[in-house]
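Workshop exercise sheet. Pairs work together: one partner reads the sequence aloud, the other fills in the structure field after running the prediction. Swap roles for the next sheet.
Pair: D.N. / O.F.
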Amino acid sequence: MASSFFIMDVIILTQTVVGTLGNFSLLCRYIVLHFMGYRIRSTDLILKHLIVANSLVLLCKGVPQTMAVLGWKHIRSDFGCKLLFFLHRVGRGVSIGSICLLSVFQVITISPWNSRWAALKVTAPKYIVPSLFLCWILQMPVNVIFPFHITGKWSDKNITEERDFGYCSSTLTDKTEDALYSALLLFPDVLCLGLTLWAGGSMVLILYRHKQQVQHIRRPDASSRSSPESRATKTILLLGSTFVYFYILSSIFQVLLALLDQPSQVLVDVTVVTAACFPTVSPFLLMSRNSSVHRLYFAWMRNAKSSTIMRKL
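Structure field:
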């Protein structure tokens, strides 16, 4: 049993370090591209907010969980636990909303001009920034009730019935109240998940129809090279499908955690690991397929080559 705890602790620590470094590295590359004068696309702006939200999820869950595992019981105050749980929930909600917004925006972008989305193709980029800020603002009141039931694990309060989360705990409440609040929390998540699945299916259908049309073109290079829109759509499809998979897996363990009054430490650790899977994996998926990262590399190589030539002259 001790070895299984050690393995889970190592996994949590590795996820936190690797995921945080990956998200921070990708965000820095976007910032460098912006200052180098490259045009920032609307999808890049959504991805920036996704990176910030994923970083919140990792830092607010992985770091204190690792501290508790290593015996660093620094979160003694109720305020610290409440703040960490609140920021984690907000980051998780913004991550879901960003994936949904990214998928829906890409469907509108690649839709044909004779489709019903044609009118939105021009106006959609104008609503990206308001939608992102609305996503952050709406997540705050939705999750503001959640920290009220969270307390410091080593606080001085005498609480007889509580659910242990490792570095913090929550007071046990009425089952009916828990069910109603869970439904309130799940509604925006399920709505965003449904829109993401619909957008993913629509993108697959549009790409299939485009492929069928391209096959009638006799030029050999037309079918062998995909357009930038097609590559971006495939990247978003990969990101969205990865998110849906890990979200469903994480939701299963979170439901089990909520149903048990005294969950085991293994279940708590597994829930933390599954919740951190997507924030850890997503920056590396984007770095491997996103053309913005490749533009930064080639720009750096071009500047380095120019500097070398100038020194020779």
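Discussion prompt: The chain is about 75% helix and 5% strand. What would you look at next?
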